[in-house]
Amino acid sequence: MAKNVKRIIEKEKKEKDKKIARQRIEELFRLAKEKFSKDAKLANRYVDLARKIGMKSKVRLTKEQKRLFCHNCHFFLMPGFNSRVRVTGKTLTYFCSNCKKYSRMGYKIRK
Fold it and tell me: How far apart are the first and last CA of the chain?
């Protein structure tokens, strides 16, 4: 009986920790968007922290969050300033002007 209660408490604690991690990640990406025009290094640092929080707490980033940074150099991407976005067929292609690499992501057209 005591083991079951202990497992339930541990599971609830993990869920609570993941919820907090998701909130922090969202806040860091929001701050990165706001601060990019003033200080790009700070925006990159926010993205790096968000990625580390996600890895440590085993929380997946959303599709929108994955599109906000380069998967090679982990820099914050702002289309039109330090990246290019192209749509070809069913693929979004992001070009990072920092590391000169392409990231391709599929998407579905909503009807």
Answer: 52
Going by DSSP bridges, is the β-strand pair 91-96/102-106 parallel, antiparallel, or unpaired?
A: antiparallel
Mean pLDDT of 47-61: 96
List the domains of the chain with CATH numbers. 2-106 (1.20.5.420)
* Residues 6 or more apart whose Cβ sits within 8 Å of residue 104: 91, 92, 93, 94
pLDDT recorded at residue 3: 72
Contact indicator for 55, 46 with CB cutoff of 8 Å: no
Closest CA to 87 of 71, 69, 107, 66: 107
Q: At residue 57, what are phi and psi to the nearest 5 degrees?
A: -95, 0
> Phi/psi at 77 (nearest 5 deg)?
-105, 125
Global pTM value = 0.86
Q: What is the pLDDT of residues 23-38, one digit of tens each?
A: 999 999 999 999 999 9
